[in-house]
Amino acid sequence: MLKFAVTTIVFLTALCAEAAPATLPHIVILTTGGTISGAQLSDASRAYRSGAVMVQDLLHAIPQANSIADISAESVCNIGSQNMTNAIWLELAARLQQVVDDPTVNGVVITHGTDTLEETAYFLSLVIKTDKPIVMTAAMRPATALSADGPSNLFDAIAVAVSPLSRGRGVLVTANGDIHYAREVEKTNTLNLAAFVSPNRGRAGETHTGDVNFFSAEVKRYGKTSEFALGEHPQLPRVDIVYSYANFGRDLIDCLVKIGTKGIVVAGTGDGNITADAQAGLEDAVRKGVVVVRSTRVGSGPVLRDVEVNDDEMGFVASDDLNPQKSRVLLMLALMKTSEPKAIQTIFDSY
Ligand code: ASP
Questions:
Q1: For residue 206, with 0-12 CB atoms within 10 Å meaning exposed, 13-18 middle and 19 or more buried, which class applies?
Q2: d(CA 25, CA 72)
């Protein structure tokens, strides 16, 4: 059982002296923890605790939000996102689907830690069915820090969620004035406010003081065109990631096969390459029914089939430009349908 309870905190427009007109779009904020709700241990401290600041306090810092949306909020969990689990994803997805199915709701904002934001965003983008905007946001600095980025990121996320331009675009991520598609976004810096980028296909758009502009459409499948749905009692199969490097051996791969993993994603060198020893381990894994996806540790660019590794012969899947952590998400969902490598390659080609 999950250790967290879903608590509903409805605070409507009492946050601001000015009551919002009834016609404003209704935006629900689902909170999950992270630095956006973090408080430093002391004024000058680098150390901080996630989840110490309530969303109401963040909203107090952006009273402007009450003039663009009628806001309610609830906490789904309160964790540093490094502690995200499959179980929490399933809980969050179930609640999110209920919220977007509510006819009184116009859009959703999800606050999240930056560490695994891209994984959660991609997972939700594949399993949630709605045209309503779902906008995730986060912060690189705790809420108590000098020039904390959380309040402005939250305002931007609300502005994107109320924009009619955001409809039908699946799960979006807003940070530092940029808007990203869930599939494309990656955290690329441990500290910088401009940590989130879409290295392969570019940003979806940008937002500034409430204005929202989109530059491009997501061409891959997501949301309503995604074949993945969670159903009543979803079970996500075990999928692990191994990281390739000079002298990378097969031991960890053998270990994973022994403990019953169903899929292995390789964060390979270059075009998803691995040492001969690791490749032999992966070939044995495939023979035992484990699905192997070759992704790359490089940070951008596609992994193409049959370049230096003969995927056709080995029975491997190439990830295209999906990074290892997102490849893990897609492979888990794909394995709920099939464990046939060719069928899974088709899935990786279209998502
Ligand atoms: N470790 C934190 C988290 O992912 C970092 C952050 O939010 O920026 O929750």
A1: middle
A2: 11
Q: Give residue 311 CA to ligand 1 midpoint distance, Å.
A: 36
Give tens-digit pLDDT for 177-228. 999 999 999 999 999 999 999 999 999 999 999 999 999 999 999 999 999 9
Alpha carbon distance, N-terminus to C-terminus of the chain: 31
Cβ(150) to ligand 1 under 6 A?
Answer: no
| Measured CA distances, 212 to 27, 164, 178, 223 (Å) | 16, 10, 10, 21
**CA dist list (Å): 171 to 17, 123, 132, 202, 253:** 32, 9, 9, 16, 33
Q: Which of 13, 31, 32, 35 is catalytic?
A: 35
Task: Please tell me the pTM assigned to this model.
Answer: 0.93
Q: Which residues partner with 187 through β-bridges?
A: 196
- Nearest partner of 155 among 81, 61, 230, 264, judged by Cα: 61
Is there a catalytic annotation at residue 120?
no
CA-wise closest residue to 266 among 287, 293, 291, 298: 293
Q: Return the exposure string of 98-117: e unless at least 16 CB atoms fall within 10 Å of the residue's CB, then b.
A: ebbeeeebbbbbbbbbbbbb
